[in-house]
Design goal:
The chain is an alpha+beta fold. It has one domain. A four-stranded antiparallel β-sheet has the order 1-2-6-3, with helices on both faces. The chain has a two-stranded antiparallel ribbon with strand order 4-5. Bound molecules: cobalamin and iron/sulfur cluster (SF4) (2 copies). The site of one iron/sulfur cluster has 12 residues, from helix 5.
Protein backbone atom coordinates (compact mmCIF):
# COMPACT_ATOMS: atom_id res chain seq x y z
CA UNK A 1 0.00 0.00 0.00
CA UNK A 2 1.25 3.49 -0.80
CA UNK A 3 2.92 5.37 2.12
CA UNK A 4 0.32 8.13 2.51
CA UNK A 5 -2.62 5.74 2.34
CA UNK A 6 -1.00 3.33 4.78
CA UNK A 7 -0.31 6.15 7.24
CA UNK A 8 -3.87 7.47 6.92
CA UNK A 9 -5.30 3.98 7.44
CA UNK A 10 -3.27 3.60 10.64
CA UNK A 11 -4.44 7.00 11.86
CA UNK A 12 -8.10 6.21 11.31
CA UNK A 13 -7.77 2.71 12.79
CA UNK A 14 -6.05 4.20 15.87
CA UNK A 15 -8.82 6.76 16.19
CA UNK A 16 -11.50 4.07 16.04
CA UNK A 17 -9.65 2.17 18.79
CA UNK A 18 -9.80 5.13 21.20
CA UNK A 19 -6.13 6.11 20.77
CA UNK A 20 -6.00 9.87 21.31
CA UNK A 21 -2.69 10.79 19.71
CA UNK A 22 -0.65 9.02 17.08
CA UNK A 23 2.58 9.92 15.30
CA UNK A 24 5.22 8.34 13.10
CA UNK A 25 8.97 8.75 13.15
CA UNK A 26 11.95 7.13 11.52
CA UNK A 27 13.39 4.04 13.19
CA UNK A 28 16.85 5.50 13.72
CA UNK A 29 19.00 5.41 16.86
CA UNK A 30 18.09 7.66 19.81
CA UNK A 31 21.55 9.15 20.20
CA UNK A 32 20.54 11.34 23.19
CA UNK A 33 19.18 8.38 25.17
CA UNK A 34 21.07 8.30 28.44
CA UNK A 35 21.47 4.50 28.54
CA UNK A 36 24.22 3.62 26.09
CA UNK A 37 23.85 -0.13 25.85
CA UNK A 38 20.10 -0.62 26.20
CA UNK A 39 18.02 -2.22 23.48
CA UNK A 40 15.68 0.81 23.63
CA UNK A 41 18.43 2.99 22.20
CA UNK A 42 18.28 1.59 18.67
CA UNK A 43 15.09 0.16 17.12
CA UNK A 44 17.22 -1.79 14.63
CA UNK A 45 18.52 -3.94 17.49
CA UNK A 46 14.93 -5.21 17.73
CA UNK A 47 14.01 -5.25 14.04
CA UNK A 48 17.08 -4.99 11.76
CA UNK A 49 15.13 -3.70 8.73
CA UNK A 50 12.95 -1.32 10.78
CA UNK A 51 11.84 1.82 8.92
CA UNK A 52 9.29 3.45 11.22
CA UNK A 53 8.15 3.82 14.79
CA UNK A 54 4.46 4.33 15.49
CA UNK A 55 3.82 6.15 18.77
CA UNK A 56 0.40 6.11 20.40
CA UNK A 57 -0.86 8.09 23.36
CA UNK A 58 -3.98 7.40 25.38
CA UNK A 59 -5.33 10.21 27.54
CA UNK A 60 -5.54 9.12 31.18
CA UNK A 61 -6.38 12.49 32.76
CA UNK A 62 -9.75 11.23 33.99
CA UNK A 63 -8.50 8.12 35.80
CA UNK A 64 -8.69 9.47 39.35
CA UNK A 65 -10.64 8.54 42.47
CA UNK A 66 -12.26 10.95 44.99
CA UNK A 67 -10.99 8.64 47.78
CA UNK A 68 -7.40 9.82 47.11
CA UNK A 69 -8.17 12.84 49.31
CA UNK A 70 -8.98 10.59 52.28
CA UNK A 71 -6.02 9.51 54.46
CA UNK A 72 -7.67 6.11 55.07
CA UNK A 73 -7.55 5.20 51.36
CA UNK A 74 -4.44 4.28 49.40
CA UNK A 75 -3.53 6.68 46.64
CA UNK A 76 -1.93 5.55 43.38
CA UNK A 77 -1.71 7.31 39.99
CA UNK A 78 -3.57 7.68 36.75
CA UNK A 79 -1.00 5.47 35.04
CA UNK A 80 -1.39 2.79 37.73
CA UNK A 81 -5.19 2.71 37.51
CA UNK A 82 -5.29 2.89 33.72
CA UNK A 83 -3.73 -0.55 33.22
CA UNK A 84 -1.02 1.01 31.02
CA UNK A 85 1.66 0.99 33.75
CA UNK A 86 3.81 -1.23 31.53
CA UNK A 87 3.00 0.71 28.36
CA UNK A 88 -0.02 0.94 26.07
CA UNK A 89 -0.13 -2.52 24.55
CA UNK A 90 -3.61 -3.97 24.06
CA UNK A 91 -4.99 -1.06 21.99
CA UNK A 92 -2.01 -1.43 19.65
CA UNK A 93 -2.60 -5.11 18.89
CA UNK A 94 -5.16 -4.43 16.10
CA UNK A 95 -2.79 -1.85 14.55
CA UNK A 96 0.05 -4.40 14.52
CA UNK A 97 -2.37 -7.01 13.14
CA UNK A 98 -3.42 -4.66 10.31
CA UNK A 99 0.22 -4.07 9.34
CA UNK A 100 0.96 -7.79 9.41
CA UNK A 101 -1.97 -8.42 7.07
CA UNK A 102 -0.41 -5.87 4.71
CA UNK A 103 2.80 -7.92 4.80
CA UNK A 104 4.87 -5.91 7.29
CA UNK A 105 6.73 -6.96 10.42
CA UNK A 106 5.83 -5.39 13.76
CA UNK A 107 7.11 -5.38 17.34
CA UNK A 108 5.01 -3.80 20.06
CA UNK A 109 6.84 -2.14 22.95
CA UNK A 110 5.65 -4.19 25.92
CA UNK A 111 7.32 -3.65 29.28
CA UNK A 112 5.64 -6.72 30.74
CA UNK A 113 7.70 -9.04 28.54
CA UNK A 114 11.33 -9.87 29.08
CA UNK A 115 13.25 -7.78 26.53
CA UNK A 116 9.92 -6.21 25.55
CA UNK A 117 10.65 -2.63 26.60
CA UNK A 118 12.18 -1.79 23.26
CA UNK A 119 11.58 1.96 22.89
CA UNK A 120 12.42 5.09 24.87
CA UNK A 121 8.79 6.12 24.58
CA UNK A 122 9.20 9.75 25.66
CA UNK A 123 12.00 10.42 23.18
CA UNK A 124 10.15 8.59 20.41
CA UNK A 125 6.97 10.58 21.14
CA UNK A 126 8.92 13.85 20.92
CA UNK A 127 10.39 12.84 17.57
CA UNK A 128 6.95 11.76 16.36
CA UNK A 129 5.61 15.25 17.15
CA UNK A 130 3.38 14.44 20.14
CA UNK A 131 4.91 17.05 22.46
CA UNK A 132 8.06 18.19 24.25
CA UNK A 133 9.97 17.02 27.31
CA UNK A 134 9.12 19.02 30.42
CA UNK A 135 11.54 19.79 33.24
CA UNK A 136 9.93 16.93 35.18
CA UNK A 137 11.26 14.77 32.31
CA UNK A 138 7.80 13.73 31.13
CA UNK A 139 6.28 14.29 27.72
CA UNK A 140 3.92 17.28 27.64
CA UNK A 141 1.30 17.61 24.94
CA UNK A 142 -0.41 20.97 24.41
CA UNK A 143 -3.77 19.21 24.28
CA UNK A 144 -3.34 16.41 26.84
CA UNK A 145 -0.75 17.80 29.29
CA UNK A 146 1.38 15.00 30.75
CA UNK A 147 -1.59 12.67 30.88
CA UNK A 148 -0.76 10.57 27.84
CA UNK A 149 0.15 6.96 28.55
CA UNK A 150 2.47 5.95 25.74
CA UNK A 151 2.96 2.89 23.62
CA UNK A 152 4.80 2.13 20.41
CA UNK A 153 5.36 -0.23 17.51
CA UNK A 154 8.55 -0.76 15.55
CA UNK A 155 7.85 -1.79 11.95
CA UNK A 156 9.49 -2.21 8.56
CA UNK A 157 6.60 -0.30 6.96
CA UNK A 158 7.57 3.03 5.44
CA UNK A 159 5.26 5.67 6.96
CA UNK A 160 4.92 9.46 6.78
CA UNK A 161 7.42 10.57 9.41
CA UNK A 162 6.95 13.72 11.44
CA UNK A 163 9.36 16.49 10.46
CA UNK A 164 8.60 19.24 13.00
CA UNK A 165 9.28 18.70 16.71
CA UNK A 166 7.41 20.77 19.32
CA UNK A 167 9.48 23.49 20.94
CA UNK A 168 10.08 23.51 24.70
CA UNK A 169 7.36 25.60 26.37
CA UNK A 170 8.60 25.33 29.97
CA UNK A 171 10.50 28.64 29.70
CA UNK A 172 11.18 30.16 33.17
CA UNK A 173 8.78 27.87 35.02
CA UNK A 174 10.23 25.57 37.69
CA UNK A 175 7.03 24.55 39.49
CA UNK A 176 7.65 20.80 39.16
CA UNK A 177 11.18 21.16 40.49
CA UNK A 178 10.13 23.09 43.58
CA UNK A 179 7.07 20.87 44.18
CA UNK A 180 9.03 17.60 44.27
CA UNK A 181 9.29 16.70 47.96
CA UNK A 182 12.40 14.56 47.47
CA UNK A 183 14.49 16.88 45.30
CA UNK A 184 14.45 14.33 42.49
CA UNK A 185 14.28 17.08 39.87
CA UNK A 186 17.18 19.24 41.01
CA UNK A 187 18.57 19.11 37.50
CA UNK A 188 15.89 20.24 35.03
CA UNK A 189 14.77 17.61 32.46
CA UNK A 190 16.62 14.83 34.30
CA UNK A 191 14.92 12.60 36.84
CA UNK A 192 17.15 11.44 39.68
CA UNK A 193 15.59 8.00 39.72
CA UNK A 194 17.01 6.91 43.09
CA UNK A 195 15.31 9.89 44.79
CA UNK A 196 11.95 9.62 43.02
CA UNK A 197 9.03 8.40 45.13
CA UNK A 198 7.57 6.42 42.21
CA UNK A 199 10.79 4.41 42.16
CA UNK A 200 11.18 4.15 45.94
CA UNK A 201 7.65 2.81 46.42
CA UNK A 202 8.65 -0.12 44.19
CA UNK A 203 11.93 -0.76 45.97
CA UNK A 204 13.18 -2.51 49.08
CA UNK A 205 15.30 0.27 50.54
CA UNK A 206 13.54 3.48 51.43
CA UNK A 207 14.96 6.58 53.11
CA UNK A 208 13.34 7.77 56.37
CA UNK A 209 12.23 11.07 54.79
CA UNK A 210 10.03 9.15 52.33
CA UNK A 211 7.71 8.14 55.17
CA UNK A 212 7.18 11.81 56.02
CA UNK A 213 6.25 12.93 52.51
CA UNK A 214 4.48 9.91 51.00
CA UNK A 215 1.16 10.59 52.79
CA UNK A 216 -1.35 7.96 51.58
CA UNK A 217 0.61 7.04 48.43
CA UNK A 218 0.98 3.28 48.11
CA UNK A 219 2.17 3.18 44.49
CA UNK A 220 3.40 6.06 42.31
CA UNK A 221 3.56 9.81 42.86
CA UNK A 222 2.04 12.56 40.73
CA UNK A 223 3.17 15.63 42.67
CA UNK A 224 5.30 17.07 39.85
CA UNK A 225 2.46 16.50 37.40
CA UNK A 226 -0.08 18.11 39.75
CA UNK A 227 2.06 21.24 39.85
CA UNK A 228 2.54 21.52 36.08
CA UNK A 229 0.56 24.40 34.54
CA UNK A 230 0.01 22.30 31.41
CA UNK A 231 -2.13 19.96 33.51
CA UNK A 232 -4.18 22.65 35.25
CA UNK A 233 -7.29 22.31 33.09
CA UNK A 234 -7.13 18.49 33.24
CA UNK A 235 -7.00 18.52 37.05
CA UNK A 236 -10.07 20.75 37.14
CA UNK A 237 -12.01 18.93 34.49
CA UNK A 238 -10.59 16.00 32.50
CA UNK A 239 -11.28 15.86 28.78
CA UNK A 240 -14.18 13.66 27.73
CA UNK A 241 -12.76 10.98 25.46
CA UNK A 242 -13.86 7.48 24.51
CA UNK A 243 -11.30 6.03 26.93
CA UNK A 244 -12.11 8.51 29.74
CA UNK A 245 -15.63 7.17 29.66
CA UNK A 246 -14.35 3.59 29.68
CA UNK A 247 -11.94 4.28 32.58
CA UNK A 248 -14.58 6.03 34.66
CA UNK A 249 -16.96 3.11 34.29
CA UNK A 250 -14.14 0.70 35.11
CA UNK A 251 -13.06 2.40 38.35
CA UNK A 252 -16.50 3.54 39.54
CA UNK A 253 -16.74 0.93 42.27
CA UNK A 254 -13.07 0.59 43.13
CA UNK A 255 -13.13 2.98 46.11
CA UNK A 256 -13.51 0.30 48.78
CA UNK A 257 -10.70 -1.80 47.32
CA UNK A 258 -8.31 0.97 48.34
CA UNK A 259 -9.53 1.26 51.95
CA UNK A 260 -6.25 0.78 53.83
CA UNK A 261 -7.50 -1.65 56.53
CA UNK A 262 -8.92 -3.85 53.73
CA UNK A 263 -5.63 -3.65 51.83
CA UNK A 264 -3.63 -4.54 54.94
CA UNK A 265 -5.63 -7.79 55.26
CA UNK A 266 -5.04 -8.88 51.65
CA UNK A 267 -3.14 -12.14 51.20
CA UNK A 268 -0.63 -12.49 48.39
CA UNK A 269 -3.22 -14.31 46.27
CA UNK A 270 -5.84 -11.73 47.15
CA UNK A 271 -3.42 -9.00 46.02
CA UNK A 272 -2.87 -10.79 42.70
CA UNK A 273 -6.62 -11.30 42.18
CA UNK A 274 -7.43 -7.70 42.94
CA UNK A 275 -4.56 -5.83 41.33
CA UNK A 276 -2.89 -8.33 38.99
CA UNK A 277 -4.90 -7.05 36.02
CA UNK A 278 -3.32 -3.60 36.47
CA UNK A 279 0.02 -5.07 35.50
CA UNK A 280 1.95 -2.92 37.94
CA UNK A 281 4.60 -5.51 38.68
CA UNK A 282 4.98 -4.24 42.26
CA UNK A 283 5.80 -7.22 44.53
CA UNK A 284 3.31 -8.04 47.27
CA UNK A 285 5.73 -7.44 50.17
CA UNK A 286 6.48 -3.90 48.96
CA UNK A 287 2.83 -3.11 48.31
CA UNK A 288 2.04 -4.30 51.84
CA UNK A 289 4.91 -2.26 53.32
CA UNK A 290 3.55 0.87 51.62
CA UNK A 291 0.03 0.13 52.87
CA UNK A 292 1.24 -0.27 56.47
CA UNK A 293 3.18 3.02 56.37
CA UNK A 294 0.13 4.83 54.98
CA UNK A 295 -2.09 3.23 57.61
CA UNK A 296 0.18 4.30 60.48
CA UNK A 297 -0.11 7.85 59.21
CA UNK A 298 -3.91 7.63 58.95
CA UNK A 299 -4.04 6.37 62.55
CA UNK A 300 -1.83 9.25 63.74
CA UNK A 301 -3.99 11.80 61.94
CA UNK A 302 -7.18 10.32 63.38
CA UNK A 303 -5.72 10.27 66.92
CA UNK A 304 -4.63 13.90 66.55
CA UNK A 305 -8.07 14.93 65.28
CA UNK A 306 -9.72 13.22 68.27
CA UNK A 307 -7.51 14.88 70.89
C1 LIG B 1 11.88 2.94 33.85
C2 LIG B 1 10.71 3.87 33.87
C3 LIG B 1 10.40 4.52 35.07
C4 LIG B 1 11.29 4.43 36.31
C5 LIG B 1 12.56 5.17 36.08
C6 LIG B 1 12.37 6.43 35.29
C7 LIG B 1 13.63 6.89 34.61
N1 LIG B 1 13.74 8.16 34.42
O1 LIG B 1 14.47 6.11 34.26
C8 LIG B 1 10.39 5.04 37.42
C9 LIG B 1 9.78 3.93 38.22
C10 LIG B 1 11.06 6.01 38.39
C11 LIG B 1 9.34 5.76 36.58
C12 LIG B 1 8.55 6.74 37.10
C13 LIG B 1 7.52 7.34 36.42
N2 LIG B 1 7.10 7.05 35.17
CO1 LIG B 1 8.03 5.85 34.00
N3 LIG B 1 8.83 4.76 32.71
C14 LIG B 1 9.92 4.05 32.72
C15 LIG B 1 10.15 3.42 31.33
C16 LIG B 1 9.85 1.94 31.39
C17 LIG B 1 11.56 3.65 30.78
C18 LIG B 1 12.10 5.09 30.97
C19 LIG B 1 13.55 5.18 30.58
O2 LIG B 1 13.90 5.01 29.43
N4 LIG B 1 14.42 5.41 31.56
C20 LIG B 1 15.84 5.50 31.36
C21 LIG B 1 16.31 6.98 31.45
C22 LIG B 1 17.67 7.16 30.84
O3 LIG B 1 15.46 7.73 30.71
P1 LIG B 1 14.69 9.07 31.10
O4 LIG B 1 14.43 9.45 32.46
O5 LIG B 1 13.57 9.04 30.16
O6 LIG B 1 15.87 10.06 30.78
C23 LIG B 1 15.76 11.11 29.89
C24 LIG B 1 15.94 12.42 30.60
O7 LIG B 1 16.63 12.28 31.80
C25 LIG B 1 16.64 13.20 29.54
N5 LIG B 1 17.93 13.73 29.87
C26 LIG B 1 18.96 13.13 30.42
N6 LIG B 1 19.97 13.95 30.50
C27 LIG B 1 19.55 15.12 29.98
C28 LIG B 1 20.18 16.34 29.83
C29 LIG B 1 19.49 17.40 29.24
C30 LIG B 1 20.17 18.68 29.07
C31 LIG B 1 18.14 17.24 28.81
C32 LIG B 1 17.38 18.32 28.18
C33 LIG B 1 17.52 16.00 29.00
C34 LIG B 1 18.23 14.98 29.57
O8 LIG B 1 16.83 12.38 28.43
C35 LIG B 1 16.92 11.09 28.93
C36 LIG B 1 16.92 10.16 27.79
O9 LIG B 1 15.73 9.45 27.58
C37 LIG B 1 9.12 4.22 30.45
C38 LIG B 1 8.48 3.40 29.32
C39 LIG B 1 9.37 3.36 28.10
N7 LIG B 1 9.52 2.21 27.52
O10 LIG B 1 9.91 4.37 27.70
C40 LIG B 1 8.08 4.69 31.48
C41 LIG B 1 7.44 6.06 31.26
C42 LIG B 1 8.49 7.04 30.85
N8 LIG B 1 6.96 6.43 32.58
C43 LIG B 1 5.88 7.13 32.57
C44 LIG B 1 5.29 7.72 33.71
C45 LIG B 1 3.92 8.37 33.52
C46 LIG B 1 5.93 7.70 34.94
C47 LIG B 1 5.43 8.37 36.22
C48 LIG B 1 4.78 9.72 36.09
C49 LIG B 1 4.47 7.40 36.92
C50 LIG B 1 3.90 7.96 38.20
N9 LIG B 1 2.81 8.63 38.20
O11 LIG B 1 4.49 7.76 39.21
C51 LIG B 1 6.76 8.49 37.00
C52 LIG B 1 7.49 9.75 36.49
C53 LIG B 1 8.19 10.59 37.40
C54 LIG B 1 8.96 11.65 36.59
N10 LIG B 1 8.99 12.87 37.06
O12 LIG B 1 9.53 11.33 35.54
C55 LIG B 1 5.34 7.27 31.16
C56 LIG B 1 5.57 8.69 30.64
C57 LIG B 1 4.39 9.29 29.92
C58 LIG B 1 4.65 10.73 29.57
N11 LIG B 1 3.61 11.45 29.25
O13 LIG B 1 5.76 11.20 29.59
C59 LIG B 1 6.12 6.14 30.40
C60 LIG B 1 6.40 6.44 28.95
C61 LIG B 1 5.31 4.84 30.57
C62 LIG B 1 3.97 4.80 29.88
N12 LIG B 1 3.33 3.66 29.99
O14 LIG B 1 3.46 5.71 29.29
N13 LIG B 1 9.34 5.35 35.29
S1 LIG C 1 7.08 11.61 40.78
FE1 LIG C 1 7.13 12.60 42.81
S2 LIG C 1 9.13 12.14 43.66
FE2 LIG C 1 9.21 11.64 41.47
S3 LIG C 1 9.98 13.51 40.53
FE3 LIG C 1 7.76 13.71 40.50
S4 LIG C 1 7.28 14.78 42.42
FE4 LIG C 1 9.37 14.04 42.60
S1 LIG D 1 5.93 22.51 35.90
FE1 LIG D 1 6.73 24.12 34.60
S2 LIG D 1 8.90 23.57 34.31
FE2 LIG D 1 7.87 21.76 35.08
S3 LIG D 1 7.35 20.63 33.23
FE3 LIG D 1 5.55 21.87 33.78
S4 LIG D 1 5.81 23.75 32.58
FE4 LIG D 1 7.78 22.71 32.57
Amino acid sequence: MEKHLLSENIRSLADSLGIDAVGFTEASEFTSYALNYHQRRDPKLTLPNAKSIIIAGIYIGGVTMPEWKNAWYGRTSRLYLSGFFLDVVKPLVPVAEFLRQEGYQTKICDGSLEEGSILPLKLAAIRAGLGWQGKHSLLISKKFGTFLALGGIITDADLEHNTIEESDRCRNCDKCQTACPLAALDQPYVLNVKKCMSYLLQNDKIPENLKIVMENRIGDCEICQDSCPWNRKHLKSPLATKMTDHFQKKIKDWGDSFYLPNLSRLSENGYKDMFGHLNTDIPYHLFRRNVLIAMERAERLTERANQ
